[in-house]
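Homework help board

Subject: predicted structure for assignment chain

Our instructor gave us this sequence and asked us to write out the predicted structure in token form, then describe one feature. I got the tokens but I'm not sure how to describe them. Can anyone check?
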Amino acid sequence: MSIQRLFIANRGEIAVRIVRAAQSLGIHTIQAHSEADADMLAVRLADEAVCIGPPQAAKSYLDVDGVVQAAKESGADAVHPGYGFLAESPRFARAVTEAGMIFVGPSADTIQSMGDKVSARRAAHSAGVPVVPGSDGRVDDMDEAAEIAKRIGYPVMIKASAGGGGRGIRIAETPEELAKFAPQARQEAEAAFGDGGIYIEKVIIQPRHIEVQIMGDGTNAVHCFERECSLQRRRQKVWEEAPAFGLPEATRASMCNAAVDLAEAVEYRGAGTVEYLYDAKADAFYFIEMNTRIQVEHPVTEMITGLDLVALMLRVAGGEALPVTQDQITLTGHAIEVRLNAEDPLKKFMPFPGKVAALNLPESDGIRIDHFLYEGYQIPPFYDSLIGKLIVHADTREAAIDKMAGALDAIEIEGLKTTIPLHKALAQSADLRAGRIHTQWLEPWLDAGNLTEQTGGAS
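My token output:
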């Protein structure tokens, strides 16, 4: 392993995950933290810790120059960005390498190319990956936008060329709505990403969100099968599975092979995800985007393949060729992950940061919890509400849902409100168990009153 000292430029559960993976490889870990995170679990577990600024993320975790300087001064020879914050910033990746350190992820040029949704669509199309019908590039003229929408048919989706996470997206059902919403989407994209570029796609009715995990070494790439991420609230995933359910084997193979083709076409290095919309009625899939980082939901892939994706990232970043071939990666059983957030789902998901009192996390064979909690820990109010992830694995999907329901009943996180009641109610849903879900299913289900104190149990 050429990496000797790893600087972890992130926080929360992913920082804990990276610390443990690095230490399993004998790498010395240096955990970055803001003043508000001095007591977080990753700081306690790492070999060293370095304060990088005040609680505000813009002055600490998002400060490119400050983070690079701290990493350099710590004597690190590599930087892992985790997910979120600077993980998909080409400027950060470039600054890390220009400072003489290894960026654990793809090159800055690849991040830039695949981070721009328009250039990513072009790369996917060139690699033979199906894309949603839409504009060939950015659309700067409303007459051109109207002409494209007329050609592909309404409804159309207006999307930001830069960024992600659902920001800047609008759906227009008519020409009048297109004229109204396109300027709004452009303004939101400019405010969120500093880039007001937009493009237009055909709306796929009731699609499923399926994504393929890939790993590359800059020359060769492999896939680690797919994940089902269709249960989303406000375009944020809340319940993820691997593999996708009810997917024809030929379609699964096509999705996975297309993802590998795209990864090799862009000489991808590290862990990445190729995301698709899947039209189940037509058995057709379309490229959405590529995420050039480790994903929150990567544990379900690890549960069905037995791989340690974070350790693989570190080995590849250290200069190794991919240590596994495609025929060595096999799929076993079914895994489900639910995101545990410090929110009160019975009060419109109001954030609920607080102090962790009693803590009982039922980890055992087939049950894994990635988190950064300990009894007495005060969750700071400055960051994302994600506090952990519960992951289960069983022989079948039905058995995995049953195991998830049992694990949710066994968890005790006192002192906080969490999204556990939401997941308990979902585990009882006949539609979810039957696979009658899509990306537009969850919010109407919530609006219909399916989450109550009775269905969700005690929080």
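Reply (TA_rk): Your tokens look well-formed. For the description, you could write something like this. Residues 58 and 98 are 22 Å apart (CA to CA). That's the kind of observation they're looking for.
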